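Re: the 186-residue chain
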Amino acid sequence: MSAPHLRNPGEDALRREWDTVGDNELRLDRADAARVVEALNADLSGLYILFNQLRKHYWTMEGAEVRPVIEFLEDAADRLSEATDEIAIRVHALGGVPVNGPMGIRQHAPMRIEGADVYALRPSIRNDLEAYAILVAQMREHVELAQDVGDETTVEILREHLRTIEEDAHDVEKLLADDTLVRAEE
C-alpha cells in the first residue's frame, strides 16, 4: 500500500518559491536579506537536527542515571522548538522561505545527522554536545553577519537563542563530567 501524496496547489497559488528571496517590508536590501536568509536557514537546519536528535535520545534513553537526562532533553527540545519558530518567522519576514522539510534541512545542514541506531547514554550525550558546539559557532558567525548588514532585529533574535543554546551546551558538559553518568561500555 503506497502512502497518499499531498497535492501541490496550482502554480497560480504559489506566493514564494523555495530557496528564493523576494522583497521584504523591512526595507533591508534584497541581497543582504538573501545572505541573512541563507544563514538563518542553516541555523534552522541545525536546530531541527539537534531537536530531532534530542527527542530520539529522550525516547530511547535507558540506565541508572537516566531520569535527570531525560528531563533535560525534554526541556532542551522545547527551547529549540521555540527558537525554530521565531527564526522561521524571521526568515519569512525577510522575504525568504524557511527550511521546512527533510530536503531543505539536508541542503542547509551544518552538521551530520546522527544515525537512526540507538546508542549508549554517554556517546549519545557526546553527540548532542558536538551538535550544540557546531550550532553555537555557526550562530555566532550569523550574529556578526546580521550586524554587518544592519539587521538589528535578527541580531537580537539570534543573541537571545544563542544564549539559551550556550547554557544548554554547558549543562550537557556537566552531564558528561567524570563524576556523572554511569560509565558503560562505549
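Helices lie at 30-60, 66-93, 102-108, 121-148, 152-175.
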